[in-house]
């Protein structure tokens, strides 16, 4: 019960900082621009007399590009809203107002995680389905499993949300942000190396990508989502697609990663002097 109270206050704090308002405004602007771009791309396709039978493939590529941006934004938003959640409150002394009450520290960490996770779920699903709705309205394209890609994208965001809370228990805010952005960059770059390695049959490059995927599985989760959205695309036809199909075991690994980081956050925070 105490955990749910902390989650509710975390959501109220996000509302007070007008996160929902800014996210809604930016999201509407993005979807409007995306719809305009989709409209002109479709008109250009028809003007050039390209086959209508290939329109589904073309539409899937545009939807894939839009969802890739949502994937990136989801991870960056997860970092932004959580990076100062614990570290800044410890530095300012405001965490003592909560931690000195009859609450376990694990309840504080878990409550904050639940509140921010709900925030991320609303953001990722609304934006993802907005992109899919544009594709469906403009060209009649709808992914075969519309629930699966947003769930994988949300899991990628939760990986960095959990990492952010864990690192925030022992690192200052700026150092935490630097660590998370570095891990995200390594995962993104490693994914690119793996895809190029798969195209040119370089086993060493593929292995590099696999290792970086274990450090932070965000890019691996995106590639799995991209295969669900458009299984026939490759990085040669679409740079946002995947040349390989990651194992479904990576979803299990990512879920374990989230839980392990959250457990680590509670253990470190419990031992920290406030």
State the main characteristics.
274 residues; mainly alpha; 0% strand; globular
Compact description:
78% of the residues lie in helices and 0% in strands.
- The gross shape turns out to be globular
Along the chain, the helix and strand elements come as: HHHHHHHHHHH
Say what oligomer this is. single chain
Helix proportion of residues, in percent? over 70%
From the N-terminal CA to the C-terminal CA, the straight-line distance is 24 Å
Overall pLDDT, averaged?
83
Identify low-pLDDT runs: none
Structural class, by secondary structure, is: mainly alpha
Radius of gyration: 20 Å
Main sheet properties: none
The total of helices stands at 11
Count the strands?
0
Beta strand % = under 5%
Architecture overview:
- The protein is mainly alpha-helical and 274 residues long.
- It has helices at residues 2-16, 19-47, 55-82, 87-92, 96-99, 105-139, 148-168, 173-199, 203-215, 218-229, 249-271.
Break the fold down into its secondary structure elements and pairings.
Blueprint: H1 2-16, H2 19-47, H3 55-82, H4 87-92, H5 96-99, H6 105-139, H7 148-168, H8 173-199, H9 203-215, H10 218-229, H11 249-271
Helix pairs in contact: 1-6, 2-3, 2-6, 3-6, 3-7, 3-8, 3-10, 6-7, 6-11, 7-8, 7-10, 7-11, 8-9
């Amino acid at each position: 019960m105490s955990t749910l109270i902390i989650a509710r206050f975390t959501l109220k704090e996000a509302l007070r900082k007008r996160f929902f308002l800014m996210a809604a405004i930016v999201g509407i602007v993005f979807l409007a621009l995306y719809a305009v771009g989709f409209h002109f791309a479709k008109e250009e396709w028809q003007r050039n007399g390209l086959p209508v039978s290939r329109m589904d493939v073309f539409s899937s590529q545009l939807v894939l590009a839009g969802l890739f941006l949502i994937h990136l934004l989801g991870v960056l938003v997860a970092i932004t809203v959580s990076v100062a959640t614990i570290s800044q409150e410890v530095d300012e002394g405001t965490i003592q107002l909560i931690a000195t009450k009859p609450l376990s520290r694990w309840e504080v960490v878990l409550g904050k995680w639940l509140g921010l996770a709900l925030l991320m779920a609303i953001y990722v699903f609304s934006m993802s389905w907005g992109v899919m709705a544009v594709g469906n309205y403009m060209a009649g394209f709808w992914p075969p499993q519309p629930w699966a890609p947003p769930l994988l994208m949300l899991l990628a965001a939760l990986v960095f949300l959990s990492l952010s809370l864990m690192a925030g228990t022992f690192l200052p805010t700026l150092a935490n942000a630097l660590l998370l952005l570095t891990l995200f960059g390594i995962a993104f770059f490693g994914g690119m190396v793996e895809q190029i390695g798969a195209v040119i049959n370089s086993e060493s490059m593929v292995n590099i990508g696999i290792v970086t995927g274990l450090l932070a599985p965000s890019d691996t989760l995106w590639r799995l989502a991209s295969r669900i959205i458009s299984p026939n695309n490759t990085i040669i036809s679409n740079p946002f697609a995947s040349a390989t199909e990651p194992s479904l075991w990576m979803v299990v690994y990512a879920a374990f990663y989230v839980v392990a980081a959250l457990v680590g956050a509670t253990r470190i925070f419990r031992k920290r002097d406030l």
